[in-house]
Design brief:
Phosphorylase Kinase, domain 1, 14 helices, single chain
């Protein structure tokens, strides 16, 4: 009998009491899409359904491929046990259910996982890319995540935007289909990872603790570059199944648009790191070291200053506050002439006093420059200074009555 397709799983999950053997899932209700069908989150390996159960939410992960070598259950058992033993804060508890879901009268395995409510990494970066301090903190957290995984001899195998969630501003990783843990030596990889995060020369024969080296560089450089120059997200069309890099950048690093764009960032140390990655991408497969080892060999001690937000005082004084300069750099208008006229109009408003450049602290009431992330008086976190227009979805100053891009009333 042919393995069920995504639509088969979707049809079965409409009747949880009939299709599931697990008590929690049987009593649950799937989240539906606009068509009134269970809403799948689909990848290359599985489709996932959110199940709302009594007092908890679970993910029912249905495999889209048959287990040809009959080793899936044993593989997941080793991953489950090892993750429980090391107890890292980034992973999610799961249970492999051999009698997981009944489709057309036959039982198929699934994974039952804790459901995490949060944004995928690409969505979180898109929403918060103008917050330099938050992007730097995200970079620091991701670097620590990769160090902790390596120190535990774990490789996720498919680090990418869709498998990293930001939950309450903390990072969690999901999807363990391609994960390596001790005890799986000698086995092939179940997958080769997302094309925009992996070395194009990787194959299923490549499976071990160094699997994440390449994707770690891709993600860390992207996050750190956005923290330094938010406009890169728009310049490189970030969020289109990637952060800043794509597969073609790894196939031809010397002619890559992404590498050229990152080389314009006004941060000498970051540009050195980008140059090193460009050389690694052009070298033979398997030569790229872990991020922390590269620093130990080439930059000692680890440059923690890279993970600090850019100081507004270090930028040239143009008469325009830093938060507005960053907004201009993104290019809110499509045509250069429109962009120029919009920027000039904002400058006239600034000179005429029609746009405020300070923000009141919600804790102590003191006025602080909008370029600051924390109050200059009491160091409390200040409110975000940008909002998304409900008409054109562009980010604009939060004190506008009308959107300067589309003219819509806010």
């Amino acid at each position: 009998m042919a393995w069920p397709a995504l639509s088969d799983f979707q049809d079965a999950i409409q009747n949880p009491q009939f299709c599931f053997a697990d008590g929690d899932l049987r009593s649950g209700t799937p989240v539906y899409d606009r068509m009134g069908l269970p809403k799948p989150i689909s990848g290359n390996f599985a489709s996932v359904y959110e199940m709302k159960c009594a007092g908890a939410q679970y993910a029912a992960r249905c495999f889209l491929r048959a287990d040809l070598d009959q080793g899936r259950a044993a593989r997941y058992a080793k991953i489950d046990q090892y993750l429980r033993d090391v107890g890292l804060p980034y992973t999610v508890a799961f249970e492999y259910l051999a009698r997981g879901i009944r489709v057309r009268g036959e039982w198929y395995p699934i994974l039952k996982m804790e459901w995490l409510a949060g944004d995928t990494l690409d969505v979180f970066v898109r929403k918060n890319r103008l917050d330099s301090a938050l992007m730097c903190e995200l970079s620091r957290q991701f670097l620590q995540l990769t160090i902790d995984l390596r120190s535990s001899s774990i490789a996720h195998g498919d680090l990418q935007h869709g498998n990293i969630l930001v939950v309450d501003e903390n990072l969690r990783v999901i999807d363990y289909d391609g994960m390596y843990v001790p005890g799986l030596e000698g086995l092939p990889s179940e997958e080769i990872g997302h094309r925009n995060y992996q070395d194009p020369r990787r194959t299923t024969a490549d499976f071990g603790p160094d699997l994440d080296n390449f994707s770690a560089w891709v993600i860390f450089l992207s996050l750190l570059a956005v923290s330094r120059q938010p406009g890169l997200w728009d310049t490189l069309n970030g969020g289109e199944e990637c952060l800043l890099f794509r597969q073609e950048d790894f196939e031809n690093p010397q002619s890559s648009m992404a590498f050229r764009a990152l080389d314009t960032v006004q941060d000498d140390q970051l540009r050195q790191l980008v140059s090193s990655f460009q050389q690694y991408a052009a070298s033979s497969w398997g030569n790229i070291p872990p991020l922390e080892k590269h620093w130990a060999d080439h930059v000692s001690p680890v440059p923690t200053a890279w993970l600090l937000p850019v100081s507004p005082a270090s930028e040239p004084n143009s008469g325009v506050p830093r938060w507005l300069s960053e907004l201009m750099a993104i290019g809110l208008c499509e045509e250069p002439r429109e962009r120029y006229e919009w920027i000039e109009g904002v400058r006239e408003d600034l000179q005429g006093g029609r746009v405020t450049t300070t923000i009141e602290c919600g804790r102590c009431g003191a006025e602080s420059d909008k370029s600051l992330v924390y109050c200059a008086n009491c160091e409390a976190a200040l409110l975000r200074v940008l909002v998304e227009c409900c008409h054109c979805e562009k980010f604009i100053p939060c004190n506008c009555l009308y959107c300067p891009c589309c003219g819509g009333e806010l």
